[in-house]
Write a structure and sequence with these properties.
By secondary structure, the protein is mainly α. The chain is built from 5 helices and no strands. The termini are far apart. The structure holds heme C (HEC). Heme C binds next to α2, α3 and α4.
Length: about 100
């Protein structure tokens, strides 16, 4: 019985470590709901000149966010989007892409 609990404890710690290094979807959600939904909408479907973010791969979203962050011009409305990407870390970008693709696609 004691061995069993020990195994469970070990498994549980391994699981926590794996979780901490994987993309953090809830961290992505926090950023999205605070900083992105006003333009891209509550379910990332977009509106008016704000593009939908659904239907894309995580790699595509990461790539574009890195371009906006780097100050590259992506589309005609880049000046509206670029300031929002400016302060994102690599981790924020990975978390946002994970959140958007797992929740809305
Ligand atoms: C002020 C409104 C606004 C906010 C807030 C905003 N965006 Fe955008 N976003 C835009 C606009 C406008 C574009 C299109 C820009 C262009 O023409 O290059 C865009 C483009 C994008 C694209 C590329 C979509 C595509 O397929 O071309 C991604 C990805 C994106 N935004 C993610 C985000 C994320 C993540 C956040 C929150 C950190 C965010 N946006 C916040 C307005 C906004």
């Amino acid at each position: 019985m004691k061995a069993m609990s020990l195994i469970l404890v070990v498994l549980f710690s391994l699981f926590s470590v794996a979780q901490a290094t994987a993309q953090d979807i809830s961290a992505g959600e926090t950023i999205y709901q605070a900083n992105c939904r006003n333009c891209h909408g509550p379910t990332a479907k977009g509106m008016a000149s704000f593009p939908k973010l659904t239907g894309n791969s995580a790699d595509y979203i990461v790539d574009l966010l890195e371009k906006y962050r780097a100050g590259e011009t992506v589309g005609p409305n880049t000046p509206l989007m670029a300031p929002l990407a400016k302060d994102l870390s690599d981790e924020d970008i990975a978390n946002l892409a994970a959140y958007i693709t797992t929740t809305f696609n």
